[in-house]
Amino acid sequence: MRRFVRFTLPLLLMLGMMFYVSGDWGSTKHTRPALRSILWRVAPALAARLHPEQVNRIDYDIRKTAHVTEYCLLAVLAYRAVRRDSLQFKSRQILFPILLGVGYAAGDEWHQSFVPSRTSSVEDILYDSLGVMIGSVLCQWRSQLQLLKQNRPHPQGVEPVERPEV
């Protein structure tokens, strides 16, 4: 049960949050007013000078950055769920996050095609896939560093300290 809570539950919560945001709540009719409100609170002088098209562009850039970021995090969580504590590399450890991420991105856009306030686009699937690839590469890179660190000889008389399991 502890492994489920530590490795699988965060992935399931992330998928649920992404599904929720995929509905009406994540539409521009909600995000643009929120952005304007934040701008007026944080930088009122800037907000007063911004043309509505500039606000729209900022909103667009934030939304695309969010696509990459959330799918990067999804890939990291999926990788953790498959890998758990293992240091041995298995192809499924990298394939699962990629297949889950790209598949979920396609399903997410399909879901948005049924939400009146949302639009579905292949461009978003590409941004999502970029995030998945970045997350997967980061996980593999970190895994390789851990393996190198583990296989490195220790100075004479110094024993490695093992991390206690949480």
Structure description:
It is a single chain. This protein has about 170 residues and is an all-alpha fold. The chain has one domain (about 1-145). Helix content is about 75%, strand content about 0%. The longest helix is centred in the middle third of the chain and has 32 residues, at about 50-85. It is elongated, with a radius of gyration of 20 Å. About 20% of the residues are buried.
Concise description?
This protein has 166 residues and is mainly α.
Features of the shown structure:
166 residues, mainly alpha, 6 helices, 0% strand, elongated
> How many separate structural domains?
1
- The N- to C-terminal Cα distance equals 13 Å
Estimated radius of gyration: 20 Å
Low-confidence stretches: none
Task: Provide a count of the helices.
Answer: 6
Query: What's the overall average pLDDT, rounded?
Result: 88
The largest sheet is: none
Count of extended strands: 0
Assign an overall shape. elongated
Summarize the amount of helix as a percent range.
Answer: over 70%
Tell me the strand percentage band.
under 5%
Order of helices and strands: HHHHHH
Structural class: mainly alpha
SSE arrangement:
Layout: H1 2-21, H2 28-42, H3 44-49, H4 52-83, H5 91-112, H6 122-151
